[in-house]
């Protein structure tokens, strides 16, 4: 019986040793997989960051090109209005034609370009309603410069929408 007991103990010790080795292998394999996963995640993060930086640089270049294009247009004042009619963008021709510098006019309501009687009649708001309803409105009418002088302008108002089709503002392109 003693021999049987010794045999069972040897067999138990061998089984325990095999389980310890199996546990060590699982632990080592888990650690290796964890390191590989971390490395892959790190590489993806670096690549993602690099892609984001490239995309941001492309966007900056596009914005610079757009700004340059708008400022090289000499016969048209090209500006953007928000949904309520406040000036959001301003090009150099707008400054030349209307007399306001960008820092003076951005944020102001576009009604300042209308003769007093048109403002009293609500013409600026009416134009935005028409452009919003039809997508576009064109007219030839009197406008007012910063110095108060008036001029006849051919103006196109265009309703602008985002990618989902939601209204985001208007563009105004007067030519003299």
Provide a short characterization of the protein structure.
This protein has about 180 residues and is an alpha+beta fold. The protein has helices at about 1-70, 90-100, 100-105, 115-120, 125-135; strands spanning about 80, 85-90, 135-145, 150-160, 165-175. About 55% of the residues lie in helices and about 20% in strands.
Notable characteristics:
about 180 residues, alpha+beta, Beta-Lactamase, five-stranded antiparallel beta sheet, 5 strands, about 55% helix, rod-shaped
Largest sheet, strands/sense/barrel = 5 strands, antiparallel
CATH superfamily of the largest domain: PAS domain
Number of domains: 2
- The ordered string of helix (H) and strand (E) elements is HEEHHHHEEE
CATH architecture of the largest domain: 2-Layer Sandwich
Task: Measure the end-to-end span.
Answer: 116 Å
CATH first level of the largest domain: which class? Alpha Beta
Radius of gyration: 35 Å
Strand arrangement, major sheet: 2-1-5-4-3
């Amino acid at each position: 019986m003693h021999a049987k007991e010794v045999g069972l103990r040897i067999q138990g010790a061998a089984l325990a040793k095999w389980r310890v080795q199996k546990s060590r292998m699982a632990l080592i394999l888990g650690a290796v997989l964890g390191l590989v996963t971390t490395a892959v995640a790190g590489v993806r993060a670096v690549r993602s960051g690099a892609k984001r930086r490239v995309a941001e640089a492309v966007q900056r270049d596009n914005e610079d090109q757009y700004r340059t294009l708008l400022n090289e247009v000499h016969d048209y004042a090209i500006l953007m209005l928000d949904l309520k009619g406040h000036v959001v963008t301003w090009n150099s021709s707008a400054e030349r034609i209307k007399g306001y510098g960008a820092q003076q006019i951005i944020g102001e309501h576009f009604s300042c370009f209308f003769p007093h009687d048109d403002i009293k009649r609500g013409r600026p708001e009416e134009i935005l309603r028409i452009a919003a309803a039809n997508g576009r409105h064109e007219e030839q009418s009197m406008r007012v410069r910063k110095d108060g002088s008036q001029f006849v302008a051919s103006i196109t108002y265009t309703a602008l929408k985002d990618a989902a089709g939601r209204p985001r503002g208007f563009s105004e392109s007067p030519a003299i």
